[in-house]
Amino acid sequence: MTAARVRLFADELTVGASFPFEPYEVTEREILDFAGRWDPQWFHLEPVAARSGPFQGLIASGIQTLAIAQRLSVLAAYGHWQVIAGRELHSLRFRRPVRPGMTLTGAVEITAITPDRPAPGRADRSLVSVAIDLIDSGATDPRGSTVLSGAMDMFVARRSTAS
Amino acid sequence: MTAARVRLFADELTVGASFPFEPYEVTEREILDFAGRWDPQWFHLEPVAARSGPFQGLIASGIQTLAIAQRLSVLAAYGHWQVIAGRELHSLRFRRPVRPGMTLTGAVEITAITPDRPAPGRADRSLVSVAIDLIDSGATDPRGSTVLSGAMDMFVARRSTAS
Taking a C-beta distance cutoff of 8 angstroms, is the pair B122, B84 a contact? Predict the structure, then answer.
């Protein structure tokens, strides 16, 4: 792996930079697989019963929706940064149901970069805050196309002490 | 499915009630599978490279840690309630790294039950708020055993208008 050499340090990131997502198609198969493993509630897992449920059909687990946003964020942004670890997710809102056949897209945007306190034996790092917006690309709902919105803070290494 | 008949309405839930999790063992195989699909960052995906990383070993995706907490919460609690949908995750904090071989446990506790505004054509519902605490059952770290903490709000049907 030489990829680490081209990953950006926190000092090289810019507040306001936005990273658009590749489109992601949600399938019924994936909704059922994810729900069976991680979120076994009937409205994520039973297509027939869900038809008479509050959403008139199967909807994806909110945790799966977040997992899709994470995959798209890693491919568009985090995978190219010197990420140390995630720290906190804030105000993650499940705004609209995610259904089989939807194509999701959106973007992750850097909202703040805050240098962390130096500590002995630890690499210098910054807390990088991002805003995540996952949208239904085919939305016709006047209430909006965002299915998931939220914010995350993660630690990213600073170049200063990296050799 | 007759299970819906025994699911509890929001009116039947109690603030302060706590639902302990069954133990869940985290395997390296599952960390690699989850990361490959949803969070392809090298410290979740490459055991050898991760050994010289900031955590001296492979760590689970925070989204996987949340998915484990969701599974355990559904089995212990939400699966027995008349859940309509999740609404928001608050202040979800990744407190300690989750590593292969750890056995996780913990609990979900009801912190508030707030009746929602009635609306035409919609079933009566309450916003049920829970606090989630996922812990490493073998922790010896004096800084604590919690690996993930957070809060979630979800809509749960009220008995009042259910026939």
Answer: no
